[in-house]
Amino acid sequence: METDLVAQVVKYDEDMARLQRQADSIKVKLIEEQKQLLQLESCFDRVDEDKKRRWLELEILASLKGRAHAASILLAQATINIQKNANCGE
């Protein structure tokens, strides 16, 4: 009876040691994956910032093109008015 109890305790200790090794291994993997996650998040943050910057640049360019187009229309109208006024004076 006592040998059975000792055998059970030894088996229990061995099982617990095996489970502890598994838990330790999982903890190590978790730490490595957390480091990778931080690196990936940093990369994705940079990509997101680049995308925001590009969209902002595109919006600015679109605005400038619109303003340049409006200015060219005003210039064309002013040119026509100047020519009309110059022809009226002749």
What does this 3D model show about the protein?
- This protein is mainly alpha-helical and 90 residues long.
- It has 1 helix and no strands.
- The chain has one helix at residues 2-88.
- The longest helix has 87 residues, at 2-88.
- It starts with a helix and ends with a helix.
Describe the sheet with the most strands.
none
Q: How many strand segments?
A: 0
Shape summary:
rod-shaped
Structural class: mainly alpha
Q: What number is the mean pLDDT? A: 94
Strand content: under 5%
Order of helices and strands: H
**Low-confidence blocks of residues:** none
Quick description:
The protein has 90 residues and is mostly helical.
Please supply descriptive tags for the structure shown above.
single chain; 90 residues
Topology of helices and strands:
Elements: H1 2-88
